[in-house]
């Protein structure tokens, strides 16, 4: 099956299974998840597709962590929209939208950025309820 460079299947359960496999096969090694992100053709600030992607992968990571995987870090790709080698400025990975048509290149937080920030701060909210939350904290 072929996919354009910005369109590919996602498998958050696969990440969870790989993390648990690494625990079993390699012992208690520290694991850092880097550059996990989702390109979107949605150039608006309401990037619910990216938000759901983040929630599902973070949830899979948390399940693996609770089952003994030594996950030390989870880093999203990317903080800002950037030039992508295969898709130029058309693929939008950023938690922050960059207006490339404006010479000043203004940046605006997308829904996913606001949710991720609230999630990291945890705001006293239980993690599982935060994962189930469709983004109401992010709308503040």
The number of E-state strands comes to 4
What number is the mean pLDDT? 85
CA-atom Rg in angstroms: 16 Å
Helix content: 25-40%
Can you describe this structure in just a few lines?
With 140 residues, the protein is α+β, with helices and mostly antiparallel strands. The protein is built from four helices and four strands, in the order H-E-H-E-E-E-H-H.
Structure description:
The chain is built from 4 helices and 4 strands. The protein is elongated, with a radius of gyration of 16 Å. Helix 2 (48-66) links the parallel strand 1 and strand 2. Helix 1 runs parallel beside helix 2 and helix 2 (48-66) packs parallel to helix 3 (111-121). By secondary structure, it is α+β, with helices and mostly antiparallel strands. Residues 136-140 have low confidence and may be disordered. It is 36% helix and 13% strand. The longest helix is centred in the middle third of the chain and has 19 residues, at 48-66. It has a two-stranded parallel ribbon with strand order 1-2. Strands 3-4 form a two-stranded antiparallel ribbon.
Supply the key terms:
about 140 residues, alpha+beta, two-stranded parallel ribbon, two-stranded antiparallel ribbon, 4 helices, 4 strands
Topology:
Elements: H1 12-26, E1 31-36, H2 48-66, E2 71-76, E3 96-98, E4 107-109, H3 111-121, H4 127-132
